[in-house]
Write a structure and sequence with these properties.
Layout lengths: L15 H6 L9 H4 L2 E5 L3 H13 L3 E5 L2 H10 L4 E5 L7 H11 L8 E5 L4 H9 L4 E4 L4 H22 L9 H12 L4 E5 L5 E4 L8 H15 L16 E11 L5 E10 L10 E7 L5 H10 L4 H11 L4 H8 L3 H15 L4 H8 L9
Parallel strand pairs: 1-2, 1-3, 3-4, 4-5
Antiparallel strand pairs: 6-7, 6-10, 8-9, 9-10
Length: 366
Amino acid sequence: MVARDPRPEAWRIVSNDDAANNPDRDTTRTAGDAARRIMVCTADTALSETLLGGLRKRGYRAQGAADSDSALFQLAISPPDAMLCDQALPGHEGMALMQLIRRERYDLADMPIIVMSDFGDRADIIAGKLAGADDYVVKPVDIELLVASVEAQLRLAARMRSAIVATPDLNAGGGRINAYHALLDRLSFGIILYNSHGQPIFTNQTAAQMSRSNATTVGAWVKRQSTHSPREGDASVKPGAKVMDFRMIPIGVSGSNAAQHLFVAVVNLTEADDPDPILGAMIFPSTHGGVLGAGLVADALGLTPTELRLAEFLAEGMRLDQIGEEMGIAKPTVNYHLRNIYQKSGSSRQSDLINLLRSVHLTDGR
């Protein structure tokens, strides 16, 4: 019995018979290229047909999604290699859908998202890229330019995957190196180490979840610092200073419409006169990511399972009314459990409790 391919029909490569029956199909791509899967997310039927036909003709596996719900379903079942997202989209507006993917689907951090929009002003393009788009295409869409953008983004994704996550050599001090890397992978904030040329030599798992555009931005900042030679008498850079740069990247909004940012500190991890310095970028999200740390703190306080769940929601920055709605309990019940948590933790203010729950910056390291 032949196993059934569980992927959507349009994900599959056109067969040789199909190619023979379709002489207009471009067959110059290699088998590896033909395996690339592209999702076209738009409610515009004419645009969808044009793009799906053009991509399939060029050897891609292309699948359409007419709204955000369909796109999210397909992303859950069979994620593509790249996504084309129309800004004018039913359900979640295109930008909101992209932000949702970047915020909640860390496993898709290296999936290029190209936004298609009717708005081509400079401010619109900047806003789209800051929201997480890897490229921004203005309608009417030129299929050749779009394919060139897809190709460029896929190449960049491949280079980033091969360069940004360094795998230690197990035959060269591997056990000790692995131990250091495993420790860094347990931290809930991102860490990227760079050599003296500004090239990444290690990325922990939290930092690897960043979008490629943000990783590129951080890398550019580090490279600028690695080649920066302060002028004599320049008081803005202290000799031997460990913190070389500190910046902020806007990354969208949370579920409660609060602005989200990444705070990036570039540090020198070696002596100031070291001829081959190692630089590090420490990346702190404005929303708490150390769920394991919050759980450990809650466990140490002796919280009940209900109190533990409430505490974890607090650590994530949710409001009390949102927590009540999420847990399906009334406001008086939320306040009752909160008073118990205050008593067990010795805290008297919600802000103090949140700081306590966020004080251990650990993840499960998987």
